[in-house]
Amino acid sequence: MKDFAGRTAFVTGGANGIGLGLARALLDEGCKVAIADIREDSLEAALKTLDNRNVMGVKLDVASREGYARTADEVEEQMGPVSLLFNNAGINLFQTIDESTYDDWDWVLGVNLHGVINGIQTFVPRMKERGLGGHIVNTASMASFLCGPAPGIYNCSKFAVRGMSESLRYSLAPQGIGVSVLCPGLVKSYIYASDSVRPENLANRGTPENQAFTDQLANVHQYGMEPDEVAAKVLDAIRANRFYIFSHPEFKEELQEVFDEIIAAFPPMGDLDDNAKQRLEFEKGRRESYRKARQEARGE
To answer: What is the mean pLDDT of residues 5-31?
Structure first.
């Protein structure tokens, strides 16, 4: 995609951080933009900074399938068909998996994974039917590659978003719809304050919130990358139809180290019996199909 002007964009988590940066960048390109967020006060504040007749704000819990569908109808009725979708909303829970409850799982996966699924299930059939092409950007994280003990559920959700995005890219390429996955590092945002939007029906938390740690995270996030810088890199990647969007170059060496460990863990091929030869023949065909899918998604 080379030209954004005149298209309608839908950005979840759009009232702060990366989402708000995307909204500004898209408006500058001549898009009509709907920003969706669960915080009404943040929406109101964001709209005041986006003094533009081509933007609207909608309150949305991305974990709600019904709410997502109603919101999509409202946006498209007012702004026209959405052809740019940014599944960006996300929350974090800074604790390990073994310290977590079912409510913890349902909350984090409900927003970070099912929120993306709901965006796809809501808008992709409409985009395909209209035949106008478009692009989808799913926000994962460098946590979709790099893990520590915490935040365990967050890592799980972001790994899933990365895999889902790659599969979706190949299936939508013939429709002229691009798909990218954004893997940022530290950004100036309010994700450290996720507990403030935790729903009451999922309140059973494995460990109490560590307010001192939350305060520390708030300070750390002040040194995060500016959302406008991330947004500019996202739009450049859409123009070039790139799948991976790595906004923070400081992770390159670490990721290389992890990939080197993965490759080093493979055993040598050794001698092949008949079963192994048949297996490898099957894998040869699968490998060629995968290579072809990647090439077609790049437009080659």
So the answer is: 97
What pLDDT is recorded for position 216?
87
Any domain includes 89: yes
Share of the chain above pLDDT 70, in %: 100
Sheet (strand 244-245) strand order = 55-59, 32-37, 8-12, 82-87, 134-139, 177-182, 244-245
For residues 203-222, average pLDDT:
89
Active site (catalytic) residues = 154
Do 84 and 95 meet the contact criterion of CB atoms below 8 Å apart? Answer: no
User: CATH number for the domain including 214?
Assistant: 3.40.50.720
111 shares its domain with 242: yes
122 lies in some domain: yes
Q: What is the dihedral of CA 199, 16, 14, 208, to 10 degrees?
A: -20
Q: Are 10 and 72 in contact (CB under 8 A)?
A: yes
Mean pLDDT of 231-256: 98
Question: CB-based burial of residue 158 (10 Å sphere; 0-12 exposed, 13-18 middle, 19+ buried)?
Answer: buried
Considering the domain boundaries, does residue 124 fall inside one? yes
